[in-house]
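Q: Please design a sequence for this.
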């Protein structure tokens, strides 16, 4: 305890008061609490105040024997009595058997998401993009919903009122309708580019991200329904194995650490190779011109035209060559010389990936740059399984055609040749190992295996070729840079599964695009949370954290008093040890909200005198 002097000036006159103060610890840091007032009289020389405060503290705790001065002991006694009387006046008596809790809401994971939203400055970015405070809060609600439960706009109002988000945001969402959320999608749509640019800049500074490597890949996401009002919804190559559904293609650019830089939504039938120019435009709009940066893309975009485009715009590249190009390096793949074994460490964003061994070998080009030949243990098994599966299907369909021809169900020569052509096209991976033809004499379909071709192809199982325009990299560095592309694949998996990007139920083009944008915003939160954990040596997933935090809740404690009144306290439950560990790791405060106390005094009913009726 210590003595503190205060001054207050009223109508030109200054009044002094001396307070006995103690220092206490609060969730917001150390604070001063007034124990009692010592009045306006000067309590002696200032250098003696510390000693006096200690004596008063001892006296207030009942240790009056420290005073030699009887008058001072009596003064301390009066102070102690006044403090105790004040405490007695503010105390209430609660009926313990009637204490209840109500309006219990899940809070832990929502609290983490809100804190990370603030840390990334997403609210400020939205406001700078021109959105109102209400729209910013609705966008936060929709983004955290994607991260938590991924409900539709129709189901989101019910979800939010089952969580502590209204308490955290200080908003009443009890009357929120899905129509409000649909309108918010419309308001967000024209602001997407500026929001993504602002987020990329903040994350670059917050996580010390570099701009030397950019990862680009595409995926598709399908619709439920005909989508007649969406010009982008078209049938195309479906990564979701739903060729029966219309879809859109989503392109995503990530930085080396896995943070999103920008995304674009393309027509559902867009060819991967035609999107590289759009990707570069998007990249430069979000980050500015990054001359000398390295762009990493997959084999579907590795055409010579795209590589020339990258070089013309000042970028280096690391790409996977098309599968057919392996044959150009057959002798080098077969040779046992020059290989270097590398251990593939699991990607930080793919927690279930196992360590594998990859062999690499360099093959320099004449014009600079290099090719890196790679052999993966798991790829050998994968390539072999794919080939065997296709081969079995191919042989079954050939046998069916032979049976139809032999039974006379197909007699026309042209139709037989057409069926053979369709089989070769459908099973192009394995059809080249067989000679399927129509015998002109017997009009029977023959199928002869070319074992030499088949054995030669088996020697290339597990092999793939990487190409780069950089001549300052070793073959293992080329491979490690290319393997970063798995982070985009991991991002797509997160967006499609826990963030529930698919299927899409919207039918308007702008709302479809904004729905995908909300999923990207949620991925910003997810990767920021997981990266923060990973930087602290905790390799876990958001799904695991969410389950662990589900038991930290907010509730209203109802305390009935003996005089008929009711005291309600809206507060969070005491965090358990696992909650505290997570909050400490993520540097998030344990206190979710400041407790809100509401006093409902006893209702006094007045006696009503029944007056006699007239007449």
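A: Design:
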């Amino acid at each position: 305890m210590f003595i503190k002097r205060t001054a207050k000036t009223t109508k030109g006159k200054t009044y002094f008061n001396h307070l006995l103060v103690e220092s206490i610890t609060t969730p917001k840091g150390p604070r001063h609490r007034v124990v009692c007032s010592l009045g306006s009289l000067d309590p002696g020389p200032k250098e003696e105040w510390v000693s006096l405060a200690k004596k008063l503290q001892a006296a207030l705790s009942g240790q009056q024997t420290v005073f030699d001065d009887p008058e001072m002991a009596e003064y301390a006694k009066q102070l102690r009595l006044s403090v105790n009387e004040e405490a007695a006046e503010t105390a209430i008596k609660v009926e313990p058997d009637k204490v209840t809790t109500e309006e219990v809401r899940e809070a832990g994971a929502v609290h983490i998401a809100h804190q990370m939203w603030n840390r990334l400055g997403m609210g400020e970015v939205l406001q700078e993009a021109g959105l109102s405070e209400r729209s910013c809060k609705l966008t936060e609600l929709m983004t955290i919903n994607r991260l938590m439960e991924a409900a539709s706009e129709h189901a989101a109002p019910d979800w939010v009122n089952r969580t502590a988000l209204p308490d955290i945001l200080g908003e009443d969402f009890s009357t929120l309708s899905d129509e409000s959320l649909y309108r918010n999608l419309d308001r967000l749509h024209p602001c997407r580019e500026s929001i993504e640019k602002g987020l990329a800049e903040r994350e670059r500074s917050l996580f010390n991200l570099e701009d030397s490597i950019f990862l680009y890949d595409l995926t598709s996401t399908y619709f439920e329904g005909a989508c007649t009002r969406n010009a982008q919804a078209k049938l195309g190559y479906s990564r979701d194995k739903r060729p029966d559904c219309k879809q859109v293609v989503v392109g995503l650019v990530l930085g080396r650490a896995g943070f999103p830089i920008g995304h674009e939504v393309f027509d559902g039938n867009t060819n991967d190779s035609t999107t590289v120019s759009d990707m570069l435009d998007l990249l430069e709009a979000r980050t500015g011109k990054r001359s000398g940066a390295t762009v990493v893309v997959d084999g579907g975009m590795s055409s010579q035209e795209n590589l020339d485009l990258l070089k013309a715009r000042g970028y280096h590249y690391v790409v996977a060559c098309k599968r057919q190009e392996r044959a150009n390096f057959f002798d080098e793949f077969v040779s046992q010389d020059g290989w270097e074994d590398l251990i593939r460490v699991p990607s930080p964003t793919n927690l279930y990936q196992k360590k594998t061994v990859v062999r690499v070998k360099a093959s320099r080009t004449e014009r600079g740059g290099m090719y890196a030949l790679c052999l993966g243990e798991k790829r050998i098994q994968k390539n072999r399984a794919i080939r065997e599966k296709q081969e079995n299907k191919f042989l079954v369909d050939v046998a069916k055609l032979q049976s139809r021809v032999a039974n006379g169900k197909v007699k026309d020569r042209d139709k037989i040749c057409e069926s053979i052509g369709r089989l070769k096209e459908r099973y192009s991976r394995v059809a080249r190992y067989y000679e399927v033809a129509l015998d002109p004499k017997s009009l029977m379909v023959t199928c002869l295996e070319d074992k030499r071709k088949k054995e030669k192809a088996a020697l290339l199982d597990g092999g793939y070729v990487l190409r780069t325009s950089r001549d300052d990299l070793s073959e293992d560095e080329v491979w490690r840079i290319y393997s970063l592309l798995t982070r985009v694949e991991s991002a797509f998996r997160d967006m499609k599964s826990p963030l529930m990007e698919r299927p899409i139920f919207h039918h308007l083009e702008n709302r479809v695009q904004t729905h995908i944008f909300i999923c990207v915003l949620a991925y910003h939160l997810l990767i920021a949370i997981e990266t923060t954990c990973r930087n602290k040596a905790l390799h876990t997933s958001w799904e695991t954290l969410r389950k662990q935090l589900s038991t930290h809740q907010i509730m209203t404690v109802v305390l009935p008093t003996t005089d008929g009144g009711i005291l309600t306290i809206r507060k969070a439950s005491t965090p358990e040890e696992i909650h505290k560990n997570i909050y400490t790791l993520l540097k998030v405060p344990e206190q979710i909200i400041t407790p809100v106390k509401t006093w409902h005094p006893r209702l006094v009913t007045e006696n009503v005198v029944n007056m006699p009726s007239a007449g």
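Q: Thanks. Anything notable?
A: Residues 2-90 form one domain. The longest strand covers residues 13-26.
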